[in-house]
Design a protein that fits this description.
By secondary structure, this protein is mostly helical. The protein contains nine helices and no strands. The longest helix is centred in the N-terminal third of the chain and has 23 residues.
Amino acid sequence: MVTHDAYSSLEDGDLVVRAKEGDERAFGELVSRNHAVVYRVVLGILRDSDLAADAAQDAFLKAFRALAKFRGQAAFRTWLLTIATNEARGALRRKDVRRETRLDDAPPLAASGQDSEGWVARQEEVERARRLLARLPEKQRLAVQLRVEEGLAFREVGRIIGSSEGAARVNYHHGIKRLRAWMEDEPHEP
């Protein structure tokens, strides 16, 4: 019997092999490792926390059902994020999601002891960047988000957004260039 600690020390590839053999705890460990990144990616597409939670859950269910077909040509995380991205895009088509930021999704207040004015200014810049990121075309937005926030290689980004590695690089660079221009052009709000 493998303990939980033993599962956490296994590589994703080993967990995939065990999960394919029917070990649900191995798949559970894969879910635990990847839930946050899957949720962030689908939230970036859907911009609704409830829809993102549903899409993330649906992505994991689809991955579980299709695990026998996973051949390992890409990293498990890349394969899973591709499923999640497709699931989020499908949710957009099905629900005709309005792309707005909800007030309850605002960042938490500054902790005591921090420079409140500096913290507020940083949070305003982060929110401004997120708002501008949302204006990018989908492939550029995903390329920037997956590269910057998730630290994925361009090859992985390309697979997830359905393009080549080179196209992922181009989408990323055009997205960053637009963001920089918008950040310089858009006036700061008081």
